[in-house]
């Protein structure tokens, strides 16, 4: 749908699965992962870098395969 329906022309594929992200990119689909979304939220003022970092750390501790920066300032 993302590739063929004009309604979704500005959409992106959200995944933390590296293989799925690579597939989407090969198909010309813009992708985002959880860390990228949190980073965008920080840039937009939706959360602080510390809050975003804490959330990513908690997700990783719960077994989610998310990228976590070394420091909150990297968000």
Structure description:
- This protein has 75 residues and is mostly helical.
- The chain folds into two domains: 1-32, no CATH class; 34-75.
- It contains three helices and two strands.
- A two-stranded parallel sheet has the order 1-2.
- Helix 2 runs antiparallel to helix 3.
- The model has no long low-confidence stretch (mean pLDDT 93).
Can you summarize the main beta sheet? Answer: 2 strands, parallel
For the residues shown, what is the average pLDDT? 93
* Helix/strand/pairing category: mainly alpha
Global Rg? 14 Å
The fraction of residues assigned to DSSP E strands is 5-15%
Total domain count? 2
Number of helices: 3
Distance between the termini: 30 Å
Q: Strand arrangement, largest sheet?
A: 1-2
Order of helices and strands: EHEHH
What is the strand tally? 2
The 3D shape can be described as globular
Low-confidence stretches: none
Helix content: 40-55%
List keywords for this structure.
75 residues, mainly alpha, 2 domains, two-stranded parallel sheet, 3 helices, 5% strand, globular
SSE order and pairing:
Elements: E1 13-14, H1 18-26, E2 31-32, H2 34-43, H3 49-61
Parallel strand pairs: 1-2
Helix pairs in contact: 2-3
Quick rundown:
The chain is mainly alpha-helical and 75 residues long. The protein has helices at 18-26, 34-43, 49-61, and strands spanning 13-14, 31-32.
């Amino acid at each position: 749908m993302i590739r063929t329906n004009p309604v979704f022309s500005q959409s992106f594929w959200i995944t933390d699965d590296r293989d799925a992200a690579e597939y989407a990119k090969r198909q010309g689909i813009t992708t985002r992962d959880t860390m990228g979304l949190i980073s965008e939220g920080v840039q937009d003022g939706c959360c602080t870098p510390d809050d975003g970092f804490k959330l990513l750390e908690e997700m990783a501790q719960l077994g989610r395969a998310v990228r976590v920066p070394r420091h909150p300032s990297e968000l």
